[in-house]
Amino acid sequence: MKNAEGFFVGVLVGAVGALLLAPASGAETRQELRRAMDKGRDRLKDLELVAEERMGVLLDEIQEKTAHLLDAGGDLIESKRDDLLEAIRVAKRALAEEREILMRATRPRRRVEIAEEDI
Fold first, then answer.
1. 13, 35 in Cβ contact below 8 A?
2. Which of 58, 82, 87, 100 has its CA 20 to 30 A from that of 8?
3. Which band of pLDDT confidence, cut at 50, 70 and 90, is reported for residue 118?
């Protein structure tokens, strides 16, 4: 935007300077002004095309990088999900083992009474 504003200011200053300093007739001066305006309009169209092209390239790059980030994020999520599921399986096994140990420890022990006659 700065370039376009500077360009128009330059065209305006040039036109005013040409009017004040030109030894040409009014018709010639108007014709020169028209040419300058046409040239400025063409230059502005060229700048618009360049800006549109650059914006298109930037948008394509942004879309490509966004897709890459989403893919990488998906891979990371899948990896962390697998890690979490494995941790849950390990925790369940450990819990089952601890439960078994506790069950064995709390079972009533059978006393074996030895009959006096067996002695």
1. no
2. 58
3. low
Between CA 100 and CA 42 the distance in angstroms is 87
- For 32, residues 6+ apart whose C-beta sits below 8 A from its C-beta are 18, 22, 24
pLDDT at position 18 over 80:
no
Q: How far is residue 101's CA from residue 48's CA, in Å, rounded to a whole number?
A: 78
Per-residue burial over 20-36, b = 16 or more CB atoms within 10 Å of its CB, e = otherwise:
eeeeeeeeeeeebbeee
Under the banding of pLDDT at 50, 70 and 90, the label for residue 29 is confident
Counting Cα atoms < 13 Å in the Cβ hemisphere of 108 gives 3
CA max distance for the chain: 148
Query: Could you read off the pLDDT of 81-104 as tens digits, one per residue?
Result: 888 889 999 999 999 898 888 888
Question: How long, in residues, is the chain?
Answer: 119
Q: Where are the domains of the chain?
A: 8-104
- Quick check: 40 and 11 in contact, CB under 8 A? yes
